[in-house]
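Slide 14.
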Amino acid sequence: MLEHAVTQRFRSLYAGLAFALAECLLGTAARAAEARRASTPEVSRPTAFRLGCSLSEPVCVHAAGDKRVPVSVAAGALEVAERTLRFLRGNDLALPIEDGALGGGPEFDVYLSSEVTSSRAHDDPASLIGANDSASAFGLVTTAHRGCELASDVARAVAQAALIGLDPGADGATLGIGSSQLAAVVAPCFRVEAAALDQFQRAPERALVEATPSTFAGAALWADYLEETYGKGGPPRLWTEFVALEGQRTPATSFVWISEPDVYDILRRLLHGLGSSLDEAGLGFAVARAFVGSRSDGNRLADTERYGDLGRVRFDWSVPITSLPRRLRTRPIEATGATFGWLDTAGAVDTDGLVLVAECEHTYAVRWALVTVDGEGKELGRHTAGRWGDDTAQISLSSLKDVAGVLVVGSVAGHDDRELPFDPDEGSVATAVCEVTLRRD
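Slide 15: predicted structure.
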């Protein structure tokens, strides 16, 4: 140790310098924290009246702005917050960071307000010197919702606060997806989840990063797919672990939180170690979301058949094989988005084959799959193509025997330049448009 190598006199001098340096760092950090808050459109803690605190979990419920919160609403919100914290603790997942006395005590605070129309968690202006980025947070929940909708809102706010504690710089989609996945387990609400999934599946060409923390995210289906494919079973935890692995250390002088690496950077590294890749996982998810709702074959994304037609992904086109050859154009597709088409093989003979040629703009790399489906809607086989640096992909099927239809799936992996990997902080800055040619062979 250093103190064993110097005299007592120099120890005192060293301690004084260390104290001065700490004061300087803390002062700089405080100014940077204030600057971070000023540079982001976040919400400050509202003036509120404490309605009550849990006797079993570190959480309190407050009435924001006024005291006109029904007892049943406050009690229900408190119970759901307790349940969510117990779930996180019981599954060894991160809990919200204690906030000192910002809400009157170190407990996590849920503010119920009639003045807001959506619900989410907001981070406090704080950072930790010499450790990974971390911040406390509070939940601001609308009282416009009741029943399971209110419960879902509260569970999302608590789960988001826990994620903010791991990475206060996480983008909104990361918070929205992770908290929605946990809320669906802790406080399930069919009408909330079905509406969000319907909206998500109606626009498959949209980027996954367009999810927001303010509403339940249908894109939580992406986290469900990753959990089902790469997890070990049990309650969802992979998404939280991805956020925990980010481990940023924002310099004290920075005015904004640094969010690199992000969830997608972590996924790239982990999937590479498994002999896979992010674009392969994206294509796998795209195929899986085609078998959701009333199209479910029971082999993936368990329990999604209960959503019925609300869970069906939108197809850009559906054509009979008797109309081939055809040249079809996709909608503009954002990074991490997908396109779907259906070829009805009624009228085909056993000796018929199929050729797909997909030509896309150079902007983004696109992966393709032809999925053969039987008369019961189950997958028979899958053939894939598409690689970085090539804007044309071709897939051939030698036989359509026993095939009732062919699902055509295209998944946009990101920028075609490997030096510009997809970054959720930047969103989907461009789109890809493809032309698909189908002909019998």
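Speaker note: Confidence is low (pLDDT under 50) at residues 1-41.
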